[in-house]
Structures are given as C-alpha cells and as structure tokens.
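Researcher: Please translate sequence to structure tokens.
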Amino acid sequence: MDESLTEQIKILNKRIDELEQMLSVFLKPMQDIRSSANSYLRLVSLLLEHGGLTPDVLLPDLQDPIAQEIVRVLTKRSDVNISQITELVRSKRGTASRRIIREKLNNLEQKKIVTKQMVGSRNVYRLSDEVLKKWSQILGFTK
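Model: Translation complete:
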C-alpha cells in the first residue's frame, strides 16, 4: 500500500509541475497586457493633465519658450535640418529667425537635449538618447 501511495504522490507531483508550467505560459502574455495597459493609462493621464507629452513634462527645467517649441518639433519629427526646424517653429509661433533657432539648438546641444549629425552636406537634429530614455520612462515603457 505504501508503494501505491508513493507512486500516486509522484504522479500528482508530476501533474502539478505540468500545470504550473502551463499556467506560467498563460500568465506571461497577461503580464505583458497588464504592463501595456499601465503604460497606456499613464499616457492618458499625461494627456489629461498636460494636453500631451509636452516639453515642460519631459524637461521641466527648460523654461525658454522657443527651446520648448524646438523640443516639441523634435518629438514629432526627427532628423530635421535647421531650415525645417525654423519653418516648423515659425508655423507655431508666427515668427522665428534662423539665427535664433541656431542659437537655441546650440544651447540645447550643450545641455545634451538634442544631438546634431552631419548627413550629406547638412546637419540634422534629433532628441538625444538621454531625452528619449527619459521619455520612455515617463511613458512607463522602461524603468
């Protein structure tokens, strides 16, 4: 009788192990869904509180309105040259000189908010990896 009971316990343990494995396979996608839902809710919260992921949320120390507009432009478009940035800022603010935009971009580059890269014969600008990482953290995509 003891051998029979021992054999039944082994069988039950094996079945429990199999069920735990099946459950873990099932729970992984559920955890991913939960994580995505939390990120989505965080994004909705940002939209409701601030009207979007604005530069003041992303970079609260950045007070200059023109620099904020440049960051806003670069959150929507990447790898744009100074002429394109000037036009996009001008379309939002009404006025923007290329000289001022250049000065602001140099300042943002020194603060490691934007990076400049030579593509062909033109410099193009994008948000720095540090800012993109911070953006991902605010949205809850990375820790």
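Researcher: Any highlights?
Model: Helices lie at 2-50, 55-58, 65-76, 82-93, 98-110, 129-139.
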